[in-house]
Write a structure and sequence with these properties.
There is one protein chain. Helix content is 21%, strand content 27%. By secondary structure, it is of the alpha/beta class. It has four domains: 125 residues, Sandwich (Immunoglobulin-like), CATH 2.60.40; 299 residues, Alpha-Beta Barrel (TIM Barrel), CATH 3.20.20.80; 49 residues, no CATH class; 72 residues, Immunoglobulin-like. It has an eight-stranded parallel beta barrel with strand order 12-15-18-21-22-25-26-27, surrounded by four helices. The radius of gyration is 26 Å and the shape is globular.
């Protein structure tokens, strides 16, 4: 670690961390219980420090100061070395995990200098108490499933992906869905303005049979995990308003279609991850039953209903807690153990589908699920998949920020310490990639990647769900090709708005850069359906058009598809799962990093330049160009990248 900015000539101050066997873990900030860390500080005599002190506190507890031991002085460089040993087991005491914050203090005659952490690795020195470094100690046996992180993840919005030929049974009678037959040109139902009421009852007819029919296509992209939008019985086309968790929606093909998809995907070596919307139900559900369409007595129908305490009524029956105040999405009361066990029990919803063969769960709005719910859910899911030869089912949380020290609704969360999640959706890396590719800010991407890798356990970093587009965001091609004023238009205009040919061509070029980053940094790339063929669209629901199966010969679509297939092939390299990640160089307009397989057998260097002119990046190794785009050359240990280009060296 080096301070970014000099203060009283501290340029030679370094702070490094080593494990007991001498491995340099300076770039890591999460360690298993039982690890012993050796902290080593060197500082120049000109700094005037008479002592170095570690100020550390457990989350929520008072800080304690511990002095480093003076080890040696170098008369040639006039530097002093200090060391301190930290035993994670001693830090945690009787607890199997914990979150800690620490700073280094350089004590001088006139004042004291403090480290001010920039990204949990780099730091400044200041004369005031700066931002702390984070240290996460996680349970010794905690690890994300090894299979999750291999290959590519593909995010399917079921109603819009493919109309399959299998049998379906949509709801009939009152509140039956309507079908828009125009798959090729139809526009998703949209409200008059963002936030206005929308029934979302118009469907396009995509189903689970259709997903199974397209497994060859998905295999050509290197897909190993298919993440499905909610599939349970519900009124809407998006199905985030669950009606019955134990019933697969008939319009998607029901239970037979899910069983068929699981089995067929297994033949391709693919696993299915389901979307678990466990924070709230729909008001049109067997649990709430506002419209009386289910045979059960719902919570809103009677205070004697077995489901009444599953919800929080302020004034029965009209006032109750709901998700973001949306009355059609009544919030479940997970403080109620009966409600909780319906999902997390030995034979609950989560275990039921895991036993059917799914690969795991993505948890919608994980921040709103209490610790007790997540603790129990993990036990249930892991127990239901404990006998699988390739490892247990995976649990991924929708968390939009750094999950290592996330505070949600006033509570510090412990998602990644061993008892809850295996992974999270990596929205921070999306922000970093967009800052670089759209706005030319390589510094933000550098800090984002550095902080995330220095925040999460290694297996979590390998399993992060790396995304640049989802059902909740504008289409990535639209983001990369639009000006800011393009967003500020009424929904009626956005519904048919498309990029000009020139903007579309430029956006496609930038998408190649963005997707290369998405596929090659730590984590598993998650491709939102259609991004690989340049689908366009602004905010929800315009990011949810039907997949353009009829138009894949469009030159830009075909070129992007070829690119994504090349990235999928690249992901087969051992370096991209289970190894190490290091940023080698970065500047105003470029970043270069390496991926190294765990056994050292495979090393890949990736460099991306976003800007005009050329940059030259030193690479201290012989190699060959495995994949590139733009003007790129490599000779004599120097990699030269032209305008808006990338290179993958092996």
């Amino acid at each position: 670690m080096l301070p970014r900015l000099p203060l009283d000539a501290p340029a030679a101050v370094t702070f490094r961390k080593y494990t007991a066997d001498g491995r340099d873990v300076t770039h890591l900030g999460a360690h298993p219980l039982g690890d012993t860390l050796r902290l080593v500080v060197t500082c120049p005599r000109t700094l005037g420090a008479s002592a170095v002190v570690l100020r550390l506190n457990r989350d929520g507890c008072a800080a304690k100061d511990t002095p480093f031991e003076f080890v040696s002085e170098d008369v040639t460089t006039l530097t002093d070395t200090y060391e301190l040993t930290l035993k994670t087991s001693a830090l945690c005491g009787k607890s199997p995990s914990g979150l800690f914050f620490y700073r280094l203090l350089f004590v001088r005659n006139a004042d004291t200098l403090f480290t001010d952490s920039v990204n949990n690795v780099d730091f400044d020195l200041t004369r005031h108490d700066g931002a702390a470094f984070r240290l996460t100690v996680y349970e010794a046996d905690y690890a994300a499933p090894a299979w999750f992180g291999e290959g590519v993840m593909y995010h399917v919005f079921v109603d819009r992906f493919c109309r399959g030929e299998g049998e379906t049974h949509p709801r009939t009678g009152e509140r039956a869905p309507e079908i828009n037959p125009d798959w090729e040109n139809g526009i998703p139902q949209y409200p008059e303005y963002p936030g206005a009421h929308l029934t979302n009852h118009i469907h396009f007819g995509g189903n689970l049979w259709g997903v199974a029919e397209k497994l060859d296509y998905l295999a050509s992209l290197g897909v190993k995990v298919i993440y499905l939008s909610p599939i349970f019985e519900a009124y809407s086309n998006h199905k985030y308003d669950t009606g019955d968790y134990m019933t697969v929606d008939g319009s998607f093909g029901g239970e037979p279609a899910l069983d068929h998809l699981i089995a067929k995907a297994g033949e391709y070596g693919m696993k299915i991850v389901l979307d678990g919307v466990f924070n709230h139900t729909g008001d049109d559900s067997r649990y709430f039953n506002r419209y009386g369409l289910y045979p059960t007595v719902g919570a809103v129908q009677s205070e004697d209903s077995p489901y009444n305490r599953w919800f929080c009524f302020r004034s029965f029956p009209d006032e109750y807690e709901s998700w973001w105040g949306i009355p059609i999405l009544p919030k479940l009361n997970h403080a109620n153990p009966t409600c909780r066990s319906y999902f997390t029990g030995e034979n609950g919803v989560c275990a039921h589908y895991v036993k059917k063969g799914i690969g795991g769960w993505r948890l919608d709005v994980a921040d709103e699920l209490c610790d007790e719910f997540l603790d129990e859910l993990r036990v249930s899911v892991k127990a239901a998949s404990t006998d699988r030869k390739d490892g247990p089912a995976v649990i991924i949380g929708e968390v939009w920020e750094n999950a290592a020290d996330k505070v949600a609704y006033g509570n510090r969360r412990r998602y990644l310490q061993g008892k809850q999640l295996d992974s999270v959706m990596n929205y921070p890396v999306r922000s970093g990639i967009l800052a670089f590719i759209r706005d030319g800010d390589a510094e933000m991407l550098y800090h984002t990647l550095t902080e995330l890798y220095a925040s999460y356990p290694g297996s979590v970093s390998d399993a992060l769900m790396n995304l640049i587009g989802t059902h909740d965001t504008e289409r990535i091609l639209t983001v990369l090709g639009s000006d800011w004023e393009d967003y500020d238009r009424p929904n009626e205009e956005l519904a048919t708005a498309r990029l000009s040919p020139a903007k579309r061509e430029k956006a496609a070029r930038l998408l190649k850069l963005a997707s290369t980053l998405q596929f090659t940094v730590f984590g598993i790339p998650s491709v939102y359906y259609g991004d690989e063929v340049g689908m366009e669209g602004y905010h929800d629901p315009f990011c949810r058009f039907p997949f353009p199966w009829h138009d894949l010969n469009d030159p830009i679509r075909a070129d992007l598809l070829t690119h994504y297939r090349a990235l999928g092939e690249l992901r087969r390299s051992p370096a991209f799962h289970g190894g190490d990640f290091r940023i080698l160089h970065h500047g105003e307009s470029y970043i270069a990093y390496e991926r190294v397989a765990r056994d050292g057998s495979d090393r890949v260097v990736i460099a991306v330049h976003r800007g005009e002119g050329e940059v030259t990046v030193p690479v201290q190794a012989a190699g060959r160009i495995a994949y590139s785009c733009g003007e790129v050359s490599y000779a004599d240990g120097a990699l030269t990248l032209g305008e808006d280009s990338f290179c993958v060296l092996r």
